[in-house]
Write a structure and sequence with these properties.
The structure is a homodimer. Chain A is an alpha+beta fold. Chain A is built from 16 helices and 16 strands. Chain A has an 8-stranded mixed sheet with strand order 1-5-6-11-10-9-7-8. A 5-stranded mixed sheet of chain A has the order 13-12-14-15-16. In chain A, strands 2-4-3 form a 3-stranded antiparallel sheet. Chains A, B: It holds the Pfam family tRNA-synt_His.
């Protein structure tokens, strides 16, 4: 019979152990962090009724959607994000769950876009949201969660940039430009690329506003410096307009609350220039960049929204949430050489040095595992050098070698694979303490 | 605009926090256990080329497959198990990974079968396998992993039944019935339902063997009792046939090795009557039942196979693995009332009792989290009774109440929600130790 060629679909990938181990570690850290704030896990189906997914979709998401007719003739689609399923879920269950409802959801999503370098048609999202409250405490908490999460992952040098959309929208209102928010935001989004003068010119031509109005808008985005300084300048820049000042005050409250929660002031930047595109945020927004690799972009972004589930329910559900960019973060950690390269999730390797002592190796492995030390026992009685090569190439930390002489003396040889040093350590099955201490120390 | 009705597809379900919390806990326990033996995580795409999935499929799996043409006109399908993707994965990557290759894979699969009570069209599988070795140590380890896994989950009363397929196949060979294995197995599978006599009659009629041959086969399945007794009887039952005896000896080796590894003899049953249907196992097979709820069936099954990836590669890849039935296990734990019902993943609740002290609540929550105590702070300044009702209904263990008087005295009130008792505990932001000790104690 002809063989079937083993291959994955274009835009999809296998995760081999060396990539999957840190991936899983970060997901577990995220779960622990979310849980420690009272966010609870949920899961929703991969497939949804197509009308649920296309309800609010842009043309772009509709085009990228994996959709088909199932065996029962239903139009179905694979979720392309975790926000639409959350909206559907909240509309369906919020009566049972009550508010505030705090959930996290770590799961894959699918988009049939043309894959670029480092982007795939299947990828994980890692979202947390608090729904059903407009309290500033939920905004403060979101900043605190991001801070805790990155530090738990082992990242120390990062900046959480925060802004409040109502500052700009208030300013635009005060200038009588409330109805031109979309073209102005679209121009503002290009600021980083095309610079101040061209952005101003585009605002005048594309949004049809005066040069003076464009100047007022751009003065806001230029407001920079330490938080205290920004907060001192903002009242004058927004002309003390009431709605804009409410936005400034709330942003200041979030900033101060995050610091009261223990977030280092060095790690929060009040940045009134960030806009987060044209998406659905209506209040505070944030982005998170790595100080050592800002070019990779935001690795954790989010914000406050007015009404999550308006397509599915009349119940008004405001909320706030953010999403960790798992793949982007892993790529960054790899670039920064902060990922240990191992294809084994446990530190200790026991070669099957002398098969006559098989039960002793089994007992040794059990004793180490019982002490919380992950241990792999090689299954074949190959030459020791070959077995140790396997241990080396798979990234184990220790090999524990014992043959007849060692078992008789009540000792084992502990090899540190990184520096090829060895040490004899006392060991008996009923007295494993010295060995455990040596491996943990 | 008309609302879209929020609903899930037939046969699919949402996981709300109260169900998802224990689910996630068990998956994490499984990961930890697998890792402690040196099994490494992998992941494969949800979608595969259709030919990969239908290569070996039975008519039944083909009918249940979710398949469609993607936007690029490719025939694709959603995986219906984790074994076919593993076979494809191994064929593709084993050159890079080397053998023995030990992996686990915890992921959803999809089958468009008609949903019955408690069965869904999307469900998780939780598999571990060791590929590329025929060593009995890998067989012993599989039994040990199952034992460790269930104990880590908190189950003490269970039985791992083990058998070796080569015992029956050796016996059939010795009787000259090697070519009738399939109809004989099909009849044997009915033994539990239709009893000894009818099974014997069916073997004679359906497989065309003599009554005496049927009797020899059925004597094997009747061999019961303590392991030592079974091993003592088997040589005579299989007529000391060489291949069958090799199977008996290997089974005994597995039994003894598992006990040397610390598995309690009470938890292993040598049961030469189990067959695991007509599937692809060729050596040791096992099933695991809960002593307090045997009716739910096997919650962890598996076995040794000859050649995993023959459809995709010429490389001969023997292996052994098993699969934890996550949903069945959760249903059993629920029936046995061993699932704690909580919709919150953290123990401590802080009501926002007096909003003037917001920063104090934030600091208190941060201090507890830093000590590893998950803590949720309520975001709205509602009446205390209302906030405590929220805490009660969500299953928090403690509420920590503090207002102006308490903060002044350097105390907080710790309420134990289960028994409504309260206690005042000394607390200051720079001296949280007494409170942490009280909550951990």
């Amino acid at each position: 019979m002809a063989l079937i060629q083993p291959r994955t679909l274009k835009g999809f990938r296998d995760y081999l152990p060396a990539v999957m181990i840190p991936r899983e570690r970060i997901m577990e850290t995220a779960r622990q962090t979310f849980r420690s704030f009272g966010f609870a896990p949920i899961d929703t189906p991969t497939l949804e009724h197509l009308e649920i997914l296309t309800g609010k979709g842009s043309e772009e998401t509709d085009r990228q959607l994996y959709s088909f007719k199932d065996n029962g003739g239903r139009d179905v689609g694979m979720r392309f994000d975790l926000t639409v399923p959350l909206a559907r879920f909240a509309a369906q269950h919020i009566g049972t769950l009550g508010t505030p409802f705090k959930r996290y959801h770590i799961a894959p999503v699918w988009r049939g876009e043309n894959p670029q370098a480092g982007r795939y048609r299947e990828f994980y999202q890692c979202d947390f949201d608090t729904i059903g409250t407009e309290s500033v405490l939920a905004d403060i908490e979101a900043v605190t969660v991001i801070d805790s999460l990155l530090r738990a992952i082992g990242i120390e040098a990062f900046t959480i940039s925060i802004n409040n959309r109502t500052i700009l929208s208030g300013l635009l209102d005060s200038l009588g430009l409330g109805d031109k928010t979309t073209p102005i935001l679209r121009s503002l989004d290009k600021l980083g690329k095309i610079g101040l003068e061209k952005t101003a010119a585009e605002m005048v031509s594309a949004a049809g506003i005066t040069a003076e109005q464009a100047d007022r808008v751009l003065r806001l985005t230029e407001c920079d410096g330490p938080a205290e300084q920004v907060f001192a300048q903002l009242p004058e820049i927004v002309g003390n307009h009431e709605a804009a000042m409410a936005g400034v005050n709330r942003l200041q409250e979030i900033y101060q609350g995050a610091i009261a929660s223990g977030v280092s002031p060095d790690r929060i930047k009040v940045d009134v220039s960030i806009a987060r595109g044209l998406d659905y945020y209506t209040g505070v927004i944030f982005e998170t960049t790595l100080d050592d690799l800002p070019s990779i972009g935001s690795i954790c972004s989010g914000g406050r929204y007015d009404n999550l589930a308006g397509l599915y329910t009349k119940q008004h559900l405001p909320g706030i949430g953010a999403s960790l960019g798992l793949d982007r973060l892993l790529a960054a950690l790899e670039t920064l050489e902060k990922l240990s390269s191992t294809s084994k999730p446990c530190p200790v390797f026991i070669p099957l040095f002398d098969a006559d002592f098989r039960d002793d190796y089994l007992k040794l492995a059990t004793n180490l595992r019982a002490a919380g030390i992950g241990t792999e026992l090689y299954p074949e009685p190959k030459k020791l050098a070959k077995q140790l090569k396997y241990a080396d190439s798979h990234g184990f930390q220790y090999a524990i070698v014992a043959g007849g002489n060692e078992w008789e003396r009540g000792e084992v040889q502990v090899k540190r694979l990184a520096d090829k040093t060895s040490q004899d350590i006392t060991y008996q099955h009923d007295a494993p303490e010295s060995l455990i201490a040596a491996l943990k120390g």
